[in-house]
Amino acid sequence: MDFTDIAKMFDRLESTSARLEMTAILADFFKDCNPDDLRSIIYLSQGKLHPDFYGVELGMADKLVLRAIAFTSGTKDSKVEEMWVKEGDPGAVAEKLIGTKKQMTLFSEPLTLDRVVKGLTLIETAEGKDSQDKKMKHLANLLHDSGPLEARYLCRIVTGRMRIGASTMTILDALSIAFATKEDRESVERAFNVTCDLGLVAETICRSGIDGIQRIQVTIGNPIKVMLAERLPSIGEVVSKMGGECAIEYKYDGIRAQVHIGKDSVKIYSRRLEDLTPNFPDIAQALREHFKGTEAIIEGECVAVDAETGYMQSFQEVTHRRRKHGMDDAVKEVPVRIFMFDMLYVDGKDMTTTPYLQRRSALTEWFDISDNVQMSTMRIVHSEDEGEEFFEEAITARCEGVMAKSISDDSIYRAGSRGFLWIKYKKDYQENLTDSFDLSVVGAFYGMGKRAGKYGALLMASYDPEIERFGTVCKLGTGFDDAFLDGMPALLDGYKTSKRPSSLDAKMIPDVWFEPHVVLEVVAAEITVSPNHTAGMGMIKDDSGLGIRFPRFTGRVRDDKDAEQCTTVQEIMEMYEMQAHDSTGIDE
Ligand code: ATP
Q: How far apart are the CA of 251 and the centre of ligand 1, in A?
């Protein structure tokens, strides 16, 4: 297949923000693809060569890409850099400089999909001290035979920032339309939720239709999208929502880990599908040693404990394990324990469709408990009083709250979904009007006075998965210490874009726009209806969205979350309702 056809399809996608139109463009295109090509096209559309959890990124720095553009187009480095400062996107620079004068010579080769994949693989695997030069030359080689449009997308793929707006959900819609029926959409999504591999789902449905999709199973080595919890404002409501009886577990304040114990190796994935195994080698080894079977997938929370007292430490402590270097020291200095709370697979048996209590007893059967491999503390409660008592115990044990879990027959593990089978209740709910928010940075305003020349405040957004768009909720200027203010450009500038990101609705115009990527934890005093913000636009009042007042950064960068995993508009709406209900309580 010609890469030009793929680039044209990307361009058509980019020129619309209407989800239905994007779905139609993709479905039309997918129908004519062969299964192998389709798999690669899916990864490329996300700026990758492999599924997210693969762990290897193309990740070429902008400056290196600029060198390849300068080299291919015969333009001075300084001129290319000047254009990049203006455009904020190497893809836009490449489009202006590459393929304009006809570069095709006798030595040109057609730019096929195969050639692009081979070239990108060379970039990905280049090693040694001259690896940067090699990457630059491999890219230049592809750019040499590119037209402007192909160049735009090649440069975006190698930097991992595609910006074509086609989300995973839109791609799943398009696959269902192209190769199955509307009714099969749920099965297609389930196949993705249990494999986290969009390319695999696409290739399977293209090759074997919906039957193939239904045969896709939980597999060791393919992370499963995590199940998430709803929230309610009081233990009483939690117990009654669960039908008067439920399990309640301690809610540990650590890092969620999904552990795949294979025949030959153990892998630990974060909820964002990063490979955390190098950060928790002791936990990987302990789980292997204490597991009585051959293969398993389990979930638990990794929590730092005080080396002397054994007390649980706050989340900040376990983040010391997320460093890249000096892991041997970190393992000694920051002892970690895993509190297991779920079992999703064991020796050939998919446990995700088994009710919660059976999954939990399977965990206790298959694992020996030790100092660093423990079960989460759990009790079955039958009343608000029993729930309150357990909650107090959890707080005394230094947990942040409790997780209630349904014990009904349908309490299966719902991969990738947030629902009332699990409900969280945190200490913070008693102290603040709202839970904390995880919001995505989409813009920055230059500071004044002490903050002159730096980013002084950030424009923050929440995500609406129903319409697949981000909407702003607040301008955040409080809670930044000097180190964070100084580090902001390094954290954010890789996502700078010259215009409002296509997936964002905003009324406020910041000095600098960012593609949604970085997620920060924010606390606030109140959720209000705001004419200045666009999240949940029109849900409560025409032409107004939901805003959050007096927001303050807690100091926690949620690097375990993707932008789409930030607090959703629907969750903020629920919190707004919780807050309204709370104030009615106070007034009475
Ligand atoms: P969410 O995961 O719901 O989007 P979040 O990451 O901000 O939000 P919380 O809202 O505080 O975290 O709670 C959910 C998280 O709690 C889980 O993802 C998991 O990491 C953690 N957790 C701690 N203890 C448990 C437990 N016993 N059962 C399930 N999850 C637990």
A: 7
